[in-house]
Amino acid sequence: MLNVEQIDVYYGHIQALKGVTLDVPHGEIVTLIGANGAGKSTLLKTISGLLKPNRGSIHYTGVSMNGKTAQDIVKAGISHVPEGRRVFANMSVLENLELGAFVRRDTIGIRHDLQKVFELFPRLHERRKQLSGTLSGGEQQMLAMGRALMARPKLLLLDEPSMGLAPLLVKTIFAIIEEINRNGTTVLLVEQNANLALSIATRVYVIETGSVVLSGTPEELVSSEQVKMAYLGS
Ligand code: ATP
């Protein structure tokens, strides 16, 4: 579904991604693990068109995404939930969700998807009139995910949805990610906690200092000494 091939990305003179190649097959949950600063967020930002690669290509459903704007990419079916959630604090929950549908014109479909988001996240329905800036961290994460779903994505990019959340809430968020995936959305997930990443993934990529150093199924990675030592604390 998504094929990233040999991309290089720079911030000024600093090279953040070095020849990264990655495939996300339709229907799967692919996770990216790696230390702080490895380049995981940079990769998601490049896929969603916020950063431009200096080299390499990105194809989505066989179509080149090179030169497409971030808005074109949302329209094509890729939504990005950024690290730190970035909800519009001075707008209500409902207004944030409606903004997620900004690329759509199908009013009936938008109403239908709003109901689906409220079924997935009953808490957002309870809080729909509340200003988003006053939500808890977990609720803001739900809102950021709900807002992304309002674009009706076929591929959802999630950047560290567990960050700063209590373990029970992380469990809830991960169960919802699995449900979103079962409902037909392919997922590319950045997750610092390798155990968690491996538990949900169909395929895992390990990124170190801008390069993919290892990839495989969770079963393959669990048996890798390199992964055990560096990421699984054993
Ligand atoms: P984290 O989990 O800490 O977010 P990450 O793996 O997502 O880590 P990135 O945020 O992609 O890492 O950062 C990759 C590299 O690019 C880091 O060395 C970082 O310092 C650098 N970098 C990120 N954003 C910028 C920026 N706006 N300007 C300059 N350098 C940046």
UniProtKB/TrEMBL annotation:
Q: Where is the signal peptide?
A: none
Question: Which GO molecular function, any one, fits this protein according to its record?
Answer: branched-chain amino acid transmembrane transporter activity
Q: Which domain of life, per UniProt? A: Bacteria
What are the UniProt keywords, alphabetically? Answer: Amino-acid transport, ATP-binding, Nucleotide-binding, Transport
Q: What is this protein called?
A: ABC transporter ATP-binding protein
PROSITE patterns for the chain: ABC_TRANSPORTER_1, ABC_TRANSPORTER_2
- Can you supply a Gene Ontology BP term from the record? L-amino acid transport
Instruction: Tell me which residues make up the ABC transporter domain.
Output: 2-234
Which SMART domains does the record cross-reference, listed alphabetically? AAA
Q: Which family does it belong to?
A: Belongs to the ABC transporter superfamily.
Per the UniProt entry, what species is this protein from, by scientific name? Paenibacillus elgii
